[in-house]
Amino acid sequence: MMTMRSRFEPDRQLTARMAVTMFLLGLVYVAFIAALIVLLKSVVLVVVIAAALLVAQFWFSDRIALYAMHGRFVSREEQPELHGVIDRLCATADMPKPRVAVSEMDLPNAFATGRNADHAVVCVTTGLLRRLETDELEGVLAHELSHVAHRDVAVITIASFLGVIAGLIVRFAFYSQLFGGRNRDQNTAALLAIVMAVSALVYALSFLLIRALSRYRELAADRAAAMLTGKPSVLASALTKVSGDIARIPTQDLRTAQAFNAFFFTPALGPGTALASMFSTHPSLERRLEALAAISVELGEAA
């Protein structure tokens, strides 16, 4: 799943996990659509609309993400240091340079989006630019560029969207039951209940599969970035600094950005408890720092 031109370290486990996740999600959704057809007799319109929305999100995912995060494209004249770091990393990795964007948010974070390396966007917040040193910024951007090189951004975009569709059907069936129950016979009510149960099951399975893949892809991106820059301790420093500063951002601002947790360098809101960490989009800070420390030893990097 790596681009032929990229020098980011390949991760066969990530490639295998992405393939398995998409295969399992495909099976789940084929069964889901089949169940809907049997239960509702005709869901052609629903399927067509869902497919159209999926294509639209996949094709315009970069614009959607930038709009939601209040990001805008910036020129080299506006952000010379940011462009310079990305230029150096892309030259080192031998990959196409993505478009560069900045989000006017104090939340220190970054994300990459786009359907492939030729249509990718790397966006950083002004909060991140203000807090990090140049070498720390380089580590974060290398992390985001590795997501583009590994092509896991496109996989997460597609996988997340399928889960959203199942979630919407759950809500539709629930509100149909809640507000239209008196006008329906018992068979219709039972049918809606079954549809809601099947949709909920599909959403739960999708949620677990996507979270498991998302946590691993973050570790893969950390490793790829550390191997490309040769500075795992600097990436660990950036990770520690960003995670600590996020804890001081007002909760209301964090909740606004939480919908994009799966795409961020670090989550806007952490898992909080051991149980919640099982459903987190990212590994714990401790787990990521341990992995980077092991890479430091592997590279023989000075403490």
TrEMBL record:
Residues binding Zn(2+), per UniProt: H143, H147, E218
Entry annotation: catalytic residues: E144
InterPro entries for the chain: HtpX_protease (IPR050083), Pept_M48_protease_HtpX (IPR022919), Peptidase_M48 (IPR001915)
Molecular function per GO: metallopeptidase activity
Membrane-topology annotation of the record: Multi-pass membrane protein
Family, similarity comment: Belongs to the peptidase M48B family.
Record keyword Acetylation present: no
Signal peptide, first to last residue: none
Keyword Transmembrane helix set for record: yes
Keywords: Cell membrane, Hydrolase, Membrane, Metal-binding, Metalloprotease, Protease, Transmembrane, Transmembrane helix, Zinc
Textual note on the cofactor: Binds 1 zinc ion per subunit.
Its EC number(s): 3.4.24.-
Transmembrane feature ranges: 20-37, 43-60, 153-174, 189-210
Protein's name in the database: Protease HtpX homolog
Protein localization: Cell membrane
Principal cellular location given in the protein's record: membrane
Occurrences of domain Peptidase M48 (ranges): 78-294
Cofactor(s) needed for function: Zn(2+)
EC primary class: hydrolase
